[in-house]
Amino acid sequence: YTDWSRDSLIARLHALESSSKPTTTIPTKASLPQHKSSTFDFQSHPTRHIALKFLYIGSHYNGLEYSGNAASLPTVEEVLFLALLRARLVPPLPNSTDPESVLAWPGPEAINYSKCGRTDKGVSAYDQVIGLTVRSRRPAESTPGSENWDDEKDELPYPTILNRLLPPTVRVLAWAPNPPENFSARFNCASRTYRYYFTNPMLSPLYDESGTLDIQAMQKAAAYFLGDHDFRNFCKLDASKQITNFTRHISVSRIVADTATTNVGDGTASSGVYFFELRGTAFLWHQVRHMMAILFLVGQRLEAPEIVKDLLDIEKYPTKPVYQMAHEHPLVLWRCDFPEID
């Protein structure tokens, strides 16, 4: 090209560039043929009613119950519902535009859904239980070979399936294949146990030298909760629910040292981790956190242990005094008892 003029060289470059362009265009999503996504046929699969046990870290969630309202944090049920829908374990709401959206949740009546206990924002659970009807691969009793069916070996691995879709702050622990007929996680639960964890001292001595709690006084106060009592002075009153019966039965109420972290020595209180353990058949709204708040006042020597007896006496204190309930994060739904399926 040494003898070519400048204009000839430019013309040649343009010709080479044109010949190097691809002769085919890269297909875009819009240009590809559109295929309708195949719908999952739930009618062709058997179903069964099961119970699921799971745990969750409450600080990541706006409580257990899904309400449909927009919030900064999701609820535990919201992520659980999404996992059940995406795993095709429950059918979506008919005519749903997005079968993998929480808006496609079919509702409690459609799948016989029930839950053991509703926990509020920030409260954790290590033994929450729900009941629901899910897809199964268990054959009908009349099917040849059904007599050799093994729930543990042959059924869908429900915990494994759901844990692959759930965030790490929610874990399915186990499932019960044969709950009682007409099982309800709410009404079949014989008792619920809560634990509220705290340290003694409450605050580091570097910041507060008076933070040491009187554990023995707290134990004495906690014992006054045992039995049947009217707990209207130990709960958050909700006028919209129109509750008239505030009597609840408490079978366990005690302050316990966590032996893994606390050296109790000769039995006297020492520094470490403790928890308030409370067991009953049912609880009022924020009842445990209100009870713990009063126990903290006793532990800080601001009230005598007998304050519990006084507040349980509705004739003496007909209206609830003003006090701040304990923080939600140390509270855990520790255990739900189901004698028929445990």
From TrEMBL:
One of its GO terms (cellular component) is cytoplasm. This is tRNA pseudouridine synthase. GO terms for biological process: mRNA pseudouridine synthesis; tRNA pseudouridine synthesis. Its EC number is 5.4.99.12. Belongs to the tRNA pseudouridine synthase TruA family. GO terms for molecular function: RNA binding; tRNA pseudouridine(38-40) synthase activity. InterPro entries: PsdUridine_synth_cat_dom_sf (IPR020103), PsdUridine_synth_TruA (IPR001406), PsdUridine_synth_TruA_a/b_dom (IPR020097), PsdUridine_synth_TruA_C (IPR020095), TruA/RsuA/RluB/E/F_N (IPR020094). Residues 221-339 form the Pseudouridine synthase I TruA alpha/beta domain. The keyword Isomerase applies. The keyword GTP-binding does not apply. Keywords: Isomerase, tRNA processing. The lineage of its organism: Eukaryota, Fungi, Dikarya, Ascomycota, Pezizomycotina. It catalyses: uridine(38/39/40) in tRNA = pseudouridine(38/39/40) in tRNA.
